[in-house]
Amino acid sequence: MMQQPIGKIVKSNSHIDYVCQVFGVGETPQPPAPEDYSFGAFVAAELEANGGTGATLVGLIYNTLLMNPEFGALGPRLSPRSEVEIFSPDYLAETATLLGVISIGWFDAAGRAQQGVPALAATVNCPVRLLTQEEIITFHAGMDGQPQLRYAPQLLAQKHALVAPLLLSVIDRLSDLFPHSRSRLAVMRNNVAWKSIVQPAG
C-alpha cells in the first residue's frame, strides 16, 4: 500500500539536493509525526503529478531545518499562543519543518529501479512520501539477490558532515532487510566508519 505524502518539494539546491516542507496541521487530514521523517528515511517524489511521466525519484532524508518566526522577536507577547491560533492563524502558518533530501535514484514508469543520478528532476510542489519496505527492498535488490549500493560514491562525493552517518544508517537498515548479506554489509560499514574517523583528522 502506498504511503500518504509527508510534504512537498519547495526548492532545490542542486539537481539531486532538494528541500521538502513537511505538511502541518490543516494542510493534510493526518499530519506526519516526527518519526515519519527521521534521519536516513527513504522517500519518493512522485513525478507523475507534474509531468505525467510515471517516474518516481528516490531519495534519503539527510537534514532537518526548523523555520520559526518567533525566534529573535524580542519584547512581550501580546497574546498567548492559544489566542493567536484563533485570531492570526496565518502567523502560525509561517512556522515550518524543512527536510534536506538527496536523490539517489528512481523508479521508471514500469517500476524498474535505477540507482545513481536521475535524468529527471522534481518540480516545486511535487509530493513526497515514505517508501514502503517492499519498495526499499526492490530498489536495492540486485540480480543475484544481494543488496546494491551504487549510489554510495554519489553520497560520499557530497563532502557533507552528515553523509557518513547517513550511509551508516542506510547500511544498518539494509542489514535488517537483507539478513543473508549482513557479513558483506558489515565489511562496508566498518570501511565507512573508519573513513569517517580518519579523513576528518587528515
Structure characterization notes:
This protein has helices at residues 81-87, 89-92, 133-140, 152-156, 163-177, 182-201; strands at 5-12, 17-22, 42-46, 56-67, 96-107, 113-115, 127-130. The protein contains 6 helices and 7 strands; from the N terminus they run E-E-E-E-H-H-E-E-E-H-H-H-H. By secondary structure, the protein is an alpha+beta fold. The model has no long low-confidence stretch (mean pLDDT 86).
What topology emerges from the helices and strands here?
Elements: E1 5-12, E2 17-22, E3 42-46, E4 56-67, H1 81-87, H2 89-92, E5 96-107, E6 113-115, E7 127-130, H3 133-140, H4 152-156, H5 163-177, H6 182-201
Antiparallel strand pairs: 1-2, 1-7, 2-5, 3-4, 3-7, 4-5, 5-6
Helix pairs in contact: 5-6
Which descriptors apply to this entry?
202 residues, alpha+beta, 6-stranded antiparallel β-barrel, 6 helices, 7 strands, 25% strand, globular
How does the major sheet shape up? 6 strands, antiparallel, barrel
Please trace the helix and strand order, writing H or E for each element: EEEEHHEEEHHHH
Mean pLDDT over the residues = 86
Helix content: 25-40%
> How many H/I helices?
6
